[in-house]
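Researcher: Go.
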Amino acid sequence: MSRLFGSVRARATLGATLVVAVALVAAGTAVLLSLRSNLIGEAGTRAEQSARAVASELAARTPYDRLSGLDGEDRPVQIVDEDGRLVAASEDLERITGTATTDVTPRSPKPDDDDDDDSGDDSDDSGESLAPGQVADETTFTNGSATIDGDTEDYRFAALEVETSDRGRLTVHAGAPLAAEHSAVSTTLTGMLIGLPVLLGVVAGVTWLVTGRALRPVAGIRSEMAAITASEDLARRVPEPATHDEIARLARTTNETLAALEASVERQRRFVADASHELRSPIASLRTQLEVAAAHPGLLDLDGAVEDTVRLQHLAADLLLLARLDAGERPADARVDLSALAREEAAGRTGVTVDAEPAEVTGSRGQLARVLANLLDNGRRHARERVTVTVRREGDRAVLAVADDGEGVAEADRERIFERFVRLDAARSRDDGGAGLGLAIARDVAVRHGGTLTASAAPTGGAVFELRLPLAR
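Model: Structure:
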């Protein structure tokens, strides 16, 4: 059960069904209340019409035994005097509730010698002031029941006062049956109780089918991702539905992630292969020299062994730095003055001149020094006579430029030189040209510091490398 309702499809179906159920119950309750109110209102209107008909006859001084409203078989009527005594009632009325009195047998009027003189005064003391022969405008409604000729039903009673000239203030209670209201409400309620589960079943079924169809691409994506995980084949892609909804965007994003992951893994594989290749040469050379020295100590090339060891040390340091950069190592938040850093790195290097204005940036002093050292080494390697370092401020950026007077870099190669283990001069030895990691490290460090590193042609010939970093705030 927990697995069933753990699925999006089941939760969506349950949620939609519950929402529809609440809406239907609320709507059904409102319909029943409105229907009941309307039917009770209609019954009250009929009861008031009956009461006014009897009150009009009383106002016309019609005797009780000749009132037309007292012979109805389904309309209970009571006439009560101002003392609360029943003076007239419908034929065959056996029991009544909900009116001013439960009596069903009329009593004789109380003798009063001054009826004609005092009726007006008495009427002024009870409710609406009425003239003789006048029927009150205000009607009072109550609910009750009555038994007529053995049949008991619920009724809506209307109470209406009338002032007579011969019998004083009388109150007419007339009822209209509520059987139609009960029947209609009961029928409607029965229909709702039968139709509600059926409608909820239809809603649940349709929602289950619709969500299943909508989530079918997700199942395809999940199964393909499971297959990719099992096979470790990052060249595979998940199916993209031909729609323009969130699932299609999810599939496209997943494929973009797989493509980036594939490129990253492929780049890592090439990096490992190139690193192994680059490490193999100095290690093999150093081993050969040590083996020769072990057999013939007099033939030991100590300078060559030291050079191979230093080169191996530099290569290992480059590889470790690249590994830290690839792992997402964040630079420090120290403030670094590029002009001071440029002068420190240029000191002791022949043919390097510095023209710098103060420009502070935020980052790792060690990594930025490594960038400048790599650019100066690259410049000295390709320069004919001199390398120029400039530092300036441009808006909210600090610009450090390293220019040489060599042959420059062809426009087609100005991006490729920043790739790892790339050397444009294939004939150049590894001893002279390095492993091809210096510029790659420099650009990675620049990007990690929120900047850029680009190559272009120098105005005086040669190449110029520009490092742009945000100024420290």
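Model: The chain has a mean pLDDT of 84.
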